[in-house]
Structures are given as structure tokens and as C-alpha cells.
Design goal:
Length: 186
């Protein structure tokens, strides 16, 4: 795995600034740095930088970026601070493609706790921060995402599942900057 960082201040050219325009354009510009367009890439956009997690090393020829191997050393029982922006929604019963956006705090916390059980960690502390509903044009569609920033402290309970969630993210909208679990030592 590789973790890459694109800094806004190091990319003031027209080409570099396109990475920060909106999620649809960010999506296209980020994927342009990879040979295999079907590769699962996670990314997270801050106002001043973008973090990208990928299986292969990227190559954006026209911008400045940093890349290094991503091999975190973790252990069962370890406490980590976390931050994630998720598209919090559930499948609607009875319909094939309809998604129900969660808006109540208790529903969102419950949704994330369910995700934690399947992904090798237990939530020790959780806070819900920013919320946003985002939609944009992408390939003749208008995808809509119910983004919620979730932060807190987690405890690793299954190392294999936890590495899997770090590599693959949580929830829908991963190709558009949602679902990348970022962890930090406590």
C-alpha cells in the first residue's frame, strides 16, 4: 500500500488547483495518476491537502506530490484516535437501489458501531462533527452523498479485519472521498 499527499500550496498551477475543485473533478484527477483505473483508491480532501491510499504507486506527471509505503505497525488491544468522513446511509427495504440517508445522531452512531463489529475494532469514544449533503454531476448521473465526519477513539480487536478496513474503507462513496479511516496514535 502507498499513502500519497497532494498539497494545495505546492500546486498553485491551473492543473494542480483542479484537484481541489470538487469531488467529481478530484475523483478524475486522482484516478489519472494510476494505470489501472479499476484499482480501489481511498482519498480524503482537506482544504489544504489531499491524502490518497492506493495499492500501487501513483504517478501524476504535472503536479507536486509526496508518496511513501504505508505499512502501519499495529496490535490487538491498541487504542487509536480516528477520523473518518462517511456517507451514512442504509439500503431501503423493498427497493433495489434506493438508499435512506441517516440524520439522527443515534442512528449514525448505531450505523458506525455496526461497521466497527465487522471491521475488527471497538469504539471507545465517538463524536459526530461536520455534516454535509453533496451532489454533483458524474457520467450523466447526479450522485448524492450524506457526509458525516466522525471522530473518536477505537480499540483494535481483530488485526486482520482492521488492516482490511484501513485498506478498503467504510461505507459508500469511497471513489469520491468518503470512507477513508484515518488513525493516529493516542
Amino acid at each position: 500500500m502507498y499513502i500519497s499527499r497532494i498539497s494545495k500550496r505546492n500546486n498553485v498551477s491551473k492543473e494542480g488547483s483542479l484537484f481541489f475543485k470538487d469531488r467529481s473533478i478530484s475523483h478524475g484527477k486522482i484516478y489519472s495518476g494510476f494505470i489501472d483505473k479499476a484499482e480501489r483508491i481511498l482519498f480524503y480532501v482537506e482544504p489544504e491537502y489531499i491524502l490518497i491510499l492506493s495499492h500501487t504507486k501513483p504517478n501524476w506527471e504535472s503536479i507536486n506530490f509526496e508518496t511513501k509505503e504505508f505499512k502501519p505497525s499495529l496490535s490487538v488491544g491498541q487504542l487509536l484516535r480516528f477520523s473518518i468522513v462517511c456517507d451514512v446511509s442504509r439500503k431501503s427495504s423493498g427497493t433495489r437501489y434506493k438508499r435512506l440517508f441517516l440524520s439522527e445522531d443515534d442512528d449514525i452512531v448505531s450505523w458506525f458501531e455496526e461497521k466497527s463489529v465487522n471491521n475488527g475494532f471497538k469504539i471507545e469514544h465517538i463524536e459526530l462533527l461536520d455534516r454535509s449533503v453533496e451532489s454533483f454531476r458524474h457520467k450523466n448521473n447526479m450522485p448524492r452523498f450524506n457526509g458525516v465526519e466522525i471522530v473518536g477513539v477505537l480499540k483494535i480487536v481483530d488485526l486482520e479485519k482492521f488492516y482490511n478496513v484501513l485498506n478498503n474503507g467504510i461505507g459508500k462513496g469511497k471513489a469520491f472521498g468518503f470512507g477513508m479511516l484515518r488513525v493516529y496514535r493516542c
